Amino acid sequence: MDTERTTAKQNSSLEITQSLEEDPLVDGPLIPPDVLESAIRRQFQSLPTSWLAILLTCIHAAFFGLSVALAVFCSIKENVVNCKQYIHDFETQTIIAIAKVALWLLIAVFERYVQHHHSRTRNRGYLQFYRSTRNLKRLPFFIHSAGNAAFLLILSARLSFKSNEQSLMYMYLLLGVLVLELCFSVPCLLFYTVKVMQFNTEKPAPDINQEEHSNAYSGTRSLINTEIGFRDSSSVEEVVEKQADLIEYLKQHNTLLSKRLLSLTSQQIRD
Fold it and tell me: What residues form the membrane-spanning segments (predicted)?
């Protein structure tokens, strides 16, 4: 009697195991990998900052040209009567300083606008491009901020040591500051524009996808370019920052992958 009960229990457990192994995990066909990959593949989004950098370069060049023309016509050649028709009771240095502050505000807005779009690019997985342009996009703002400080020192010295004989010297110093700003700021903007235009033209895949693609062709899982871990020739802060950016991107990518997987699974179940 006991032998029959034991045999029956074994047969029932075997039937349950076989039924579980034969039943599919989901009702319906499995999701093809190509469908899921195409569903989560993000369309490349170009950076709309190159045209703004070109516009800012033109504004800076126009500001420099008008400032030099105003300084030469009203201060160096001392055409006071003709200048009064246009600048009224304002001094030439005051007008240049006000225009310079307006230009600095435009550059500050440009820096914030560019930072916003570059942060979105980093979240989309373009970590290498973000790090390569991180300091470049800030340089014009720092250059003009230093120029404002130099302007303030020169104008303060002019107010402290009032002398008609030295007024022309202060104007030359102000023009020298403008020349230095033009020589350092415009190349940065042009170089940034070239890098952004190359990025938009190439339309590369995110960094992690490029590494997977290269590893698939090479047949090895080389970690030379990923810089995971500490090396004597690398900075700890840089390695930690790269890992943090990569982890943040992978978290967002996995979240999107889970949402698309659930959506496609529920859609196949309904069909």
Answer: 51-73, 93-114, 139-157, 169-194
